[in-house]
Write the structure tokens for this entry.
Amino acid sequence: MGDTIHFIVVFLIIASAVFYFYFKTRQFRTRLVFPIRKKMYASMAGASLGGLLFFFGINQLILFDGTITYVVAAIFIALGAYVGTFNYRAFKHYKRFVDEETELNEN
């Protein structure tokens, strides 16, 4: 049972890292005439980074025992949850304006 959970958490860490690099690449490759879209991709990358921190903290709890491990893992989990939540809300905010920005820049 413990190996299965560890495998799932490691998979989620790797998936979060892949999504982070994907959205950062999308952010850098977006043209300058689309600043809202760049911010949207930056917030999506930040949400992925928050997920990476969160799952890394959980992974540390699974692998190691000890008071210091619990403190460090709690910091990673709390920071990951905060960063992920903040950037997800920013993504939802910017997503509303992407279609309008596209229409304005088509002409």
